[in-house]
């Protein structure tokens, strides 16, 4: 039975002696108690006011009021309570009967289930034993498989097959570590698995470190081999071009058929770069080039398996970068000329290896990293080259380094590396190289010229002729001469030719493979400088200081004629080596670059010959200028001069080319003409007769006959040119012997017959001509003698020329 908890209103309780405040507090307290509220505030208030008795009094009063209400409720529900007690008594009797029935049923169940429970206990015990045995068998099987894996891992570790050992360890950790029934075995595995991995990492890092040490030596050998193959390939190309030039030369010189043949060429590529090792790693070429990348790829694969791929990539890059940095060190103890091949071969081998790693390493190094390394290497190599080139003072040293650097560029360009910066450095030092080369050639030419004895060169063997004549194309006839052969030049000519040819070849060698395809103009410019500044200047110095005789001057003039032919060969040779067609080279040919030395040599020869002639011309003083009769023979001086000239010709025509001989003869004859006119003009001849002039006319006719007799040696037209060298003397004698000398005043006649005469000389010489009537005592036997019309005409000419002057 449940009692309702309805909130009831508290009836006001009358107080006998309380005031309204106490009543109010009593009402509030009663309401709070009825409503189940907290009485703490009332208690605190009572104690705060110091009247707890009042609160106790109110509570007692409230309790007495509630007892009456309880009594009323009990009286109201008494009958219901009695009925409930009766119901409980009847229920108790039913419970007793039920209890007895349950006890009987339990007894019967215990008697029946006892044997069954004993059987069930035996079954449960047997089943537990079976489960334990099965668990033990499974544990044993697990342990056996685990032990097998451990044994296999140990076997792989012993055989340095680290990848398979790691796979076994990974299988143990993944499949058996959490399932191992033995805690001891589990603890052992948890301790040994990290140890094994650390051991493998240490071993593989040691192998990788050994490989890093070994690959430096291998890289140097690899670079030398690769550059050597590039050099061999270049040499084959040079040989092929040489054969092509020879064929072109044959086709240019003759119309014979050229025979062409195909030649097999071996592949000069770096073979054996793609071999694959037995263990599945691409070793990057363990055959021909002898470098093995298997340790590197094994280490990379192991680190990938260990989960340290990025760390190994960074470790590899940093170590290779340090190696490259150490390769940049140039020893100050060893000359760079001796160490440059090792220096560049080491760098070439380094980047050949990196190219192979990039293409076969499976992402071990990126293309950007390789390019960064290459940029660093190029910058350092350019810096080293700039520094070393600035210190070099020998052209050959600079050329050797340039050739090797160009081979380095060819080698690495095959692997996709940009070498333009290196080629730019070489081009930048082009002028310095040629200046050094010019300086070296200047010394060599000076030494060669200072050793010149101005004697014709003797050649006793055909190979000497081929080496000194044919190799420079300075021969004057096609057939091989009889030996011993006396060349029309001194030993200086082939020596200088060898120096110039070496200059051309060195210049072309420096300009070749430097990134510039058309470099003939550059080679030609420096060849011009060599010939015009160096060789021409040295020859001029030699001519002015060392030539003291006609024979020496004659050999020197012959040398210049031969060098003129050699210069044509030099420019053709430069064009051929530069890959320029000969027709283009000949089209741009300039004048003879040694013309100053040639002119000086011919002037020196002419001057020495003139000195000899001057000695003979002194005999002109013995001429009888006032002869009464025309002479029957030539004067003595002209005989001596002609004998000298004929003797000179017999020697000179064996040495000097025809054109040089013609120019020298023409200059000497012109000098003789000037000497004859000078004698008539000089103060030593006060007066001369017409008979003396007739004698001079005979002399000039003899000289003209001598010039005409040279027609077999030179052409007829050139023989006539030799006669024109005597034009001044001939025209002067013709004028003095002319019956109408006043025709000299006629411009047309003067231009045709007297164009070589100076009217001032004509006046002076004409005044010296003496008429026969002017002889001493001539007036006594010439009374009534008429004036000579020729004398009259000549006097008129002299007067009019004076008026013009």
Concise overview:
Belongs to the SEC15 family. It is found in: Cytoplasm, Cytosol. This protein is mainly alpha-helical.
Topology:
Blueprint: H1 20-34, H2 40-49, H3 52-158, H4 162-176, H5 183-253, H6 294-306, H7 309-327, H8 336-360, H9 367-391, H10 395-413, H11 420-428, H12 430-450, E1 458-459, H13 462-468, E2 485-486, H14 492-511, H15 520-546, H16 550-577, H17 582-587, H18 595-617, H19 636-652, H20 658-681, E3 688-689, H21 690-708, H22 716-724, H23 727-737, H24 747-753, H25 759-768, E4 769-770, H26 789-804
Parallel strand pairs: 3-4
Antiparallel strand pairs: 1-2
Helix pairs in contact: 1-3, 2-3, 3-4, 4-5, 4-6, 5-6, 5-8, 5-10, 6-7, 8-9, 8-10, 9-11, 10-11, 10-12, 12-14, 12-15, 14-15, 14-16, 15-16, 15-18, 16-18, 18-20, 20-22, 20-23, 21-22, 21-23, 25-26
Organism: Escallonia herrerae
Keywords: Cytoplasm, Exocytosis, Transport
Domain Exocyst complex subunit EXOC6/Sec15 C-terminal: 422-768
Mean pLDDT: 79
Main sheet: strand order = 1-2
Structural class: mainly alpha
State the shape.
Answer: elongated
Strand tally is 4
How much of the polypeptide forms β-strand, as a percent range? under 5%
Q: Over the alpha carbons, how many angstroms does the gyration radius reach?
A: 65 Å
- Low-pLDDT sequence parts: 1-17, 255-282, 284-288, 772-786
Fraction of residues in H or I helices: over 70%
**Gap from first CA to last CA:** 180 Å
Count of helical stretches: 26
Topology pattern, helix = H, strand = E: HHHHHHHHHHHHEHEHHHHHHHEHHHHHEH
The description of the largest β-sheet is: 2 strands, antiparallel
